Every structure is written in structure tokens, then in C-alpha cells.
Amino acid sequence: MAQSILSHQFENGLVLVGEPMESVESAAFNILVPAGAAYDPAQRSGLATVTCELALRGCGPRDSRQFITDLENLGLQRGEAVSSAHVSLGGATLAKNLPPALGIYADLVRRPHLPADELDAVRLVALQELRAIEDDPSHKVMLELKRRYYPEPWGRPSEGEEEALGAISIEAVSGHFQRLFRPNGTIIGVAGRIDWPRLKELVGELLADWKPMAVEEPPGERRGVKIDHLSHDSSQTQIGIAYPSVPYRHPDYFRASGAVGVLSGGMSSRLFTEVREKRGLCYTVFASHHTQRSRACVLCYAGTSAERAQETLDVTLAELNRLARGIMPDELSRLKARVKSGLIMQGESSAARSAAIARDWYHLGYPRTLAELGQLVDGLTVEGINEYLEENPPRDFTVVTLGPAPLRVQAA
Amino acid sequence: MAQSILSHQFENGLVLVGEPMESVESAAFNILVPAGAAYDPAQRSGLATVTCELALRGCGPRDSRQFITDLENLGLQRGEAVSSAHVSLGGATLAKNLPPALGIYADLVRRPHLPADELDAVRLVALQELRAIEDDPSHKVMLELKRRYYPEPWGRPSEGEEEALGAISIEAVSGHFQRLFRPNGTIIGVAGRIDWPRLKELVGELLADWKPMAVEEPPGERRGVKIDHLSHDSSQTQIGIAYPSVPYRHPDYFRASGAVGVLSGGMSSRLFTEVREKRGLCYTVFASHHTQRSRACVLCYAGTSAERAQETLDVTLAELNRLARGIMPDELSRLKARVKSGLIMQGESSAARSAAIARDWYHLGYPRTLAELGQLVDGLTVEGINEYLEENPPRDFTVVTLGPAPLRVQAA
Questions:
Q1: CB contacts < 8 Å between A and B, how many?
Q2: Residues 6 or more apart in contact with residue B375 via CB below 8 angstroms
Q3: % of chain B beyond a pLDDT of 70
Q4: Would the ipTM clear 0.90, i.e. be above it?
Q5: What burial letters (b/e) apply to A37-57, b meaning 16+ CB within 10 Å?
Q6: Cβ atoms of residues A30 and A188 within 8 Å
Q7: What is the pLDDT of residue A286?
Q8: A5, B4, B272, B282: which has the fewest C-beta neighbours closer than 10 Å?
Q9: Segment B376-393, tens digit of pLDDT
Q10: pLDDT score, position B411
Q11: What sign does the CA torsion over A97, A102, A104, A105 have?
């Protein structure tokens, strides 16, 4: 299928990336604002999340209720997320409703009301979310793993800390907004039934006069302990393992993530086969490549009963170590079939493509077409991946466990 | 967009429903086999799940490994689920890979190996999943709510029971398969880039000589207690509420589910606004319509801290009772915009459409086009919904809580 992706950088640094999709009736957008959790002040972890939530409570001429009403009348299916780098604001709807939806989101990123009288309700919701994680140990162990693996503040969970959330004032929220919400570094991905010249003009009208500001990206500093156990009264043990990898923009990325795809991702993948299918050690086991712009890792998870946890950890680490000895041709051909089928599906979803092209721009400075992605996957060879693995064997493991008793970590 | 849906019932009772989608490259299928958890023998709860898992470990000429390898080489993105009524087997891939994938699935439903030497691993995985639910209280409370709301065996969780799982023998699995896997009652939905005449011919070759068998649908018998508390050592309390509604095939269904859409579903919905946005009582609160073929309910969930749980329950029940007093025109117009936008998105996904047309056939005996669904939504009026609510106010609540202490249930 022919596919073109267009992009435009406005003078204030704002980037618009658009992918016209003629086969759909919908249009979707994804706005990445460089104001994620890594920008939270050290004693105010959770500020990005609270700022994002409060920004959703009225902007421009609309109060909180009108904001929601207007979006719902446009049939917008929306979602927000705070990662370490970004506040991301996404939406999908009928193509004809895209322009008014973008108009509302322009108000959101430039003229939110940040109402003081709603701060307490927003804070309570954030505290509830934080406490709910305590009741969700599989979520918690991975969050604590990232916190220890990545150098501060890049592993900081966007959910924040209880004490920090309690101390957030309305002045802190509005200061955070004024310091960080800016056009330079902001990327808007749009995909679906769009008219590029008109879209570019509209976004220009809405956002070209937004003033840029210099903001320093937080450096990555000291990292956490490598082996840790969190005591939790349960019959289950959660296991999280991380080891270093290369980020998306690195030339070795596809070789590195291809190796992870052999380890996990399909039903014939090694972790699934060895840990779940053969031994029945656990219900869920996976490894996935996790990338930031300048650093990355492979994250592995297994959740099992406390009595089988040591064996599960040992088998999982043995599989990670075995990966260094290389992959087989049949593993690569299955991986390619899987990834290419996934690309076809992605190409049929305006929401998936709007997010992908915005993310590409953040990591690479340009968007990749599905054809280019397909070629990169096609270009993978067993020799190439094995060479990468020989030079970069899984090692230097960070291991966090959560459960009734610590485990012995033998291979770290 | 023009849309036609074709269907064919083979002499053995098997139904094929197909929706050609010219705008996609993919094709997806969803096979509903009438062998869900409600058919489990009383002392073998979990047998449907174990049978499904073991059927995935080799069929026809393929052993377990070959089965997975063949599917992965076709780039099939697959998923299985066991509901009370069905074992459902779904997959999506490039359109050209659909015929060989269906060939493999025909072996799966007719000629699975059900290997005795893999039963223990399958059982262990099922036990791990069961134990993982104990660590996932929001999942657990809704599962226990459905168990109490629906008459036995229709509320039985597909995950089964620990003792029952332990007692399942290979003879029980193969007997279960032979008793239940049959063409009559099985529905195959296929959507995407398909050629209907060739698809019908292929499915006929694969499955037309499959022998039908008479199986009685389990009756719904006694139901569980209406107010229950499950003690759980946590700082959080999980709240589940169910009340009666009409199933999908009932003429009042769209009025009933429209009312639930005003209660929950969008950011301006009543539960979200009153429980979360105004009072910050919890992070997640929702209500959703849940339908079986002959019975249905509205399920509500709220998870919050133990100290705010009583207030959360009281406010939620008050909103359910207030719904009986009717909805407003602006609420209905937002709901319509939301639902119709959702239909557009559904129309762009072959996987979503293949599941929807199979489900329609199960409930109605025919598939609904998106245009027909759109008209049904357009036809909703404030008066119609309010009339329904006056005659069928939310009442007769089943309430299950999970947490450190029971709550007072005032409105049930």
C-alpha cells in the first residue's frame, strides 16, 4: 500500500507529523508534551500527573464540565498518559470532528484553568491510584524495577509518592505548567482521513504563536540497588528482571529487539515455552524491550506461587543467559512473520499510526513508514542478531522480587 | 460506507458469518464453540479452561510445537477465551494467510491430541492463574459478584476451583471434548479482505462433515447470597454491585444499555463525575452492561481506600437510585456521539467485526450491520429511555465487597 508521511516544524519548534490514510473514516491524534515525570522536582514526585489531570478540568472558554461535554459531543475517544519524558494526550474520532477537537486541545496545552478548587479532588484520585498499586503486586514490582534500573529521575513512576502528592500546592501546579508546557519539543502526530495542507494551516493558526522556552532535560544520575526484595504478605511472588539494551534510535536497535522477540512475544518464544508450557511454573511470563530516548533495557516479568518462585527465577535467568549463545533460523522466520503481521494491523488503525509517527519523531527526528519498518525487519539475519548477542550478552541484571521471602539471585 | 454481511448455515448446524471489508489487508476470525464454563461438571469447575488449553497443544498432524510454529509462520495474532457459554478462538493475520489458519483451527476443534503428558503443566498454569487472582482483588471482587448474581452454573468463573482443577484427569478432558465440541451451536465469524464464495467452500470442506450431537444447555438454578463481604487484609476496599437488566436480544436492550451509558462510559458520565471527579473517592469507577443469551445484569465496580469505602458505596448506590428518575437530553446526545464514534472505529478493525458478527449470531440468529446498529442508536429518545427506567428502576442489588471490614448496604 502506498503510504506517505508528511511533517512540518513550526518556527517555535512545534512539530506536526501527519499520515493520510485513505481507507479509514476516522482520524486520530497524539500530542507529546515534553513535561513527563522525569521533570518532577525531587520532593514533588507526581506533579506531572497532577498537572495533567488538573489541565483536563477546563481550558480556554470552557469550564471543567463544558470541556468534557464538548469533547463527548465530538465523539472523541480520548486517553492521557504520563511517561518519564512526556505528557501524552491522544484522541480518535470521525475525521470531520478532528479540527474542533484539536482546537480544544490547543486550549488545553496553552490555556488550562488549573482550578484551585479542584486540586483536592485531583490529589485524592492520585492518592487512590497510588494505593491501588499496593493491591496490584505485578504492576508494583515492574514499577519498582524501573525505578532501580534507570538513573534518577528517569525511573521515577509517574504515579508519584504519597508524601509528595500531599504537599503539592496549586502554585506548584501552575509553576510546573508555566515552566514546562511549550511548543519546542512538543510533537503532534495525526493519522487517518486528513487533508494535510488544511491540517498544517489549522495547527499553525492554533499553535504557531505559542512562545518557546528553554528547558533543560534532566540528566540521568545515580541509579538504585541492583538486587532487591520487597516483603509482601502473599502466597505469590512477583519477579522483575532488567538488563541493559540499546535505545530505539541506536543502529543496533532492531537486532537487539529481534533477540528479545525470540525470547518472548509469541507462543513459541523461549520464555513462554520453557517457563510456562513445559514446566507450568507460572501463568504470565514475558520480556519486552523498553526504550527511552537515550537509554533502554529489557524488562522481564514472571509471577508465580512462592514455593515455585526460586525455580522460576532460576529458569528465567538461565534462558536469558542461554540467549547469548544465539538464535536459530526458524526462530527468526517466525519472528519476522509475527512482526510483519503486526505492521499490517498497525497500518489499519489511525490511533496506532498517530502514536507511532509522533514517537518516531521523538526518537529519530523523522517518522518511519510501515514500508521502511518492514524493510528493517526483512533485513534482520541470524548472523546479525547472533553477532549482536555475542557482543552484548544479557548480563548485569537488576532483579527485584516482591513476595513473602527473598530469593537467591545466582546469575546477576 | 456500504457493508454487507453474509451467512451460511451448514447441514450439521455450523454457522459461518462473513463480512467483506475492502479497505483492509487483514482478515480475522472468531470461532465460538458452545463449550464454556457453564458446561463444566459441578465438581470439575475449570474443565473447559483445561480442555481449551490442552487442545492448543497439538492437533491433526501437528504436535504441540508444530502447531505453534505453523501459526506463527502465518503471522497469526491469536487469542483464546472461555466464557460461561463458549470457548472462543480468535485470530487475525494477512488475508492470504487466513485459509491455512482456518485449516489448523479445524483440526483444533475436531482432532486435538489432548496429550496426557502435558496435562500436569496445563493444570499447574491454571492453578497459578487461580492463585494470581487472589493477588488481584479488583478482578476477584467482580468474579465473586458474577458468581453470586447469576444462577448456577452461569456465574461460574472459567478459572475454576483449586480442588476441582487438582482432580481433573485426562479421561475427564477427553470426555469433555467429545461431549461438547460439535458443529451445531458453533459459530465462525470472519471479517476483512475475504472472498465469500471461496471462504464458504473452504469452511465446508473443513467442517461440513463434522457430526452434530445433542447437548442440553444447563438450566439456571439457585443463585447466591445477595449481600456478601470477603475479608481481605489490605488498606483498600473493592466494591462490586450488580442489578438485573435485559439481555442483548431483548427489544428493550438499547434503552437499557443507553441508560447504563449515561451512568458510565464517558468522562461526563454520572458515576465518573460524582464519585471520581467531584469527590475524588476513587481512581476507577464504572458500570457496564453484561449480557448472556437469556439473562443479563449491570455490573458496577469501585475500588477505594478502606476509610472512604462506605462513602463510595453510598454515593454509588445513590447514583444508581437517581438513574430511575430519568436522563437528560444533553446526556443522550453525548452518549449517541460516543457510541457512533465507537461504531466507526469498530468498522475499521477486522478483529472487532469478526467477533461482533459471531456474537450477534449467537444472541440474535443474524448479524447486525454497522448501519443497523447506527439506526438503533439514532432511534433512542429521552422519553424511551426514561419510560424504560421508570418501569425498570435499578433495584434488587447484589453487593459484594472485598477488604478489611464489611460495609453497611443501605439501598439494596
A1: 195
A2: none
A3: 99
A4: no
A5: bbbbeeebbbbbbbbbbbbbb
A6: yes
A7: 95
A8: B4
A9: 999 999 999 999 999 999
A10: 55
A11: positive
